[in-house]
Structures are given as structure tokens and as C-alpha cells.
Amino acid sequence: MTASNESAPDPSARRRRAHFFVGLLGVLAFLASGLEMHFRYGHLRSFDMATRLSFRSIHIYLLFASLLNLGVSLGARAHEAPWKKRVAAVGSALVLAAPFLLGVAFVTEPLADGAHRTVTSFGVYAAAGGTALLAIAGAATNRR
Known about the structure:
The protein is mainly α and 144 residues long. It has a single domain (10-142), classed as Four Helix Bundle (Hemerythrin (Met), subunit A) (Up-down Bundle). It has helices at 3-7, 11-40, 49-75, 82-108, 118-142. Helix 2 packs parallel to helix 4, helix 3 packs parallel to helix 5 (118-142) and helix 4 (82-108) runs antiparallel to helix 5. The two termini are 25 Å apart. 31% of the residues are buried.
């Protein structure tokens, strides 16, 4: 092993750290959004049922995406095949983006007019699609 190989950063280690910190920040955002619903909006008592459902569902989606990132941080690994690296990188990026999208959705969508929750949808689709891509890359690795 040469000195250049020893100092080269491990992409899977960077990815694990990124997922861990995004997951941790997302859990903190989940706690903060719960406190906001409690203190700023009085447990959402003054809102109609649709608005309450919107707040609470995005709040839970944020927790889901954050815990998903924490889980991915435990299992992210390096892939040898170039296509697996690309699939895992795209999947990882989507899972990393999900808590941010859902955080934006929590702030912008529940009180907006209409039932369209575009940012929430993108956040949920990013988490689901990213998880599927990570599973494909991982399953292909396991079948060697």
C-alpha cells in the first residue's frame, strides 16, 4: 500500500458521516417542529382537521427520513463496480435530501392554500427512491 492510498479518503466513510449528521440534525429538527406545534400553535387546536393532519404528517415524515439516514449511516459501504457506485451515490444523495425537503415542507406547506403538498411529496419520494437505489446496489453486491 502506498502513501497516496493511505491518505485517500474513503468515500463510504464520508457517506456514512454525512448520513449520520443529517440524521442527527433531522431528529433535532423533528424535536424542534414538535415544540413549535406545541408552543407556537397550541397543539394545533385552533386549526381545521386538514391543517392539523398536514402539520402532523410532515412532522412524522421528517422523523422517518431522519431515522432512515441514521440507519443508512450504519450500513453504507464501498462498492467496487462503477455502476454500483453511481447507483449508491444517487440513492445516498436522495436519502440525504429528504429531511431537508421535509423541513422546508413543514415550514411552508401546512398553512398554504390548497391541498397541494409538492415539497412533501418530493421529500417522501426522495426517501423512498433513494432507499430503493441503495437496496439495489447492496443486493447486487451481496450476490457476487
